[in-house]
Amino acid sequence: MPSADQEQEPTPVFFVAGGTGISAETLGNMMLGQFPGLRFERTKIPFITTVERAAEVVTTLDAAKTDTVTPLVFSTVADNDVRDTLMRTECAFIDLFGSHLEAVERVLHVNAAHVAGTVHGVGDQGRYEARMKAIDYAMEHDDGQSLRNLEGADLILMAPSRCGKTPTSMYLALQHGLFVANYPLVEEDFDSAELPRPIRPYQAKCFGILSTPARLSQVRGERRPNSTYASIQQCSYELRRAEAMFRAHRIPTINSASMSVEEMSAVILQSRPGTPG
Questions:
Q1: Is 125-271 the same fold as 4-120?
Q2: Which of 13, 141, 230, 270 is 20 to 30 A from 51 (CA-CA)?
Q3: Does residue 235 have a known ligand-binding role?
Q4: Neighbouring C-beta atoms of residue 81, cutoff 10 Å
Q5: Per UniProt, where does ADP bind (predicted)?
Q6: 75-118 pLDDT, tens digit each
Q7: Is 163 known to sit in a ligand binding site?
Q8: Could you give the CA distance from residue 55 to residue 92 in angstroms, rounded to a whole number?
Q9: CATH of domain 125-271
């Protein structure tokens, strides 16, 4: 029976792909989200396009295997030869592409092209460029760094520090091509229930993110241990004031305490039917 230390040992997880790895990472994390009590160390290995490179990756994967831990490998590699090489790993290999593709081929009575990159629609140049612009926008408007062109935002995420604004913004930009700004609520914003002045004209685009005091304190404590910033009292105060602000202005909210970025993004999109997706 494993000891307590062994039970706490994180499981290495690899997302491998012939393209960017977005699909492998997204689908893999959806599955891992069903095991909230476990710890994982995630690594993405994209652009595996040759058998030689696949063989190198297998060496990396197998090096992570120990007597007590077997790594998980989520793959969306389309090329048969490359995929066959990767499947030689001693790790647990979850093929998110091959078996499903064969089922689609049977239904359509057509052989697939097995081309890397098509999983993400990169072949659609217009869509790809739109996503890149959305990512640029999200980076420029991360954490209130820029207030320029807020009128161009599809969505403005508001939250106290460390509630998950940045990863959610980037995910919505990368996966859905949304122009997302995120605005941090700071000490002076909690003095009243009014919206911060820079975003008042864009109330209809706002979406609030909350958490629980315990979870927020834990996340902040990893960044600033034993600080007032990470104390339960401070976290409780900020969350309470933020919730009052959102309620006063009828801003839709979501609690990020026990939700993955993928789940949060799905809820946000469903809650804002006017937002393009």
A1: yes
A2: 13
A3: no
A4: 12
A5: 159-166
A6: 989 888 999 999 999 999 998 876 666 666 676 667 666 555 54
A7: yes
A8: 16
A9: 3.40.50
Residue 159, annotated as binding a ligand: yes
pLDDT for 228-239, tens place per residue? 999 999 999 999
* Percent of the chain at pLDDT exceeding 70: 84
Tokens of 37: 């009590």
Domain boundaries, the chain: 4-120, 125-271
Other C-beta atoms lying within 10 Å of the C-beta of residue 152: 10
164 annotated binding-site participant: yes
Q: Is 160 annotated as a binding residue?
A: yes
DSSP string, the chain: ---HHHHHSPEEEEEE-SS-SHHHHHHHHHHHTT-TTS-EEEEEE----SHHHHHHHHHHHHHT--SS---EEEE----HHHHHHHTTSSSEEEESSHHHHHHHHHHHTS-----TTGGGTTT-HHHHHHHHHHHHHHHHTGGGS--TTGGG-SEEEEEETTSSHHHHHHHHHHHH---EEEEEE-GGGGGSSSPPGGGGGGGGGEEEEE--HHHHHHHHHHHSTT-GGGSHHHHHHHHHHHHHHHHHTT--EEE-TT--HHHHHHHHHHH-TTS--
Place of tokens 């609520």: 185
Task: Specify the pairing of strand 92-95 against strand 180-185.
Answer: unpaired
Tell me the pairing of strands 92-95 and 155-160. Answer: unpaired
50 is in an annotated binding site: no
Determine if residue 138 is labeled as part of a ligand binding site.
no
240 is in an annotated binding site: no
Q: What is the pLDDT of residue 99?
A: 62
Kindly report the CATH number that applies to the domain delimited by 4-120. 3.40.50
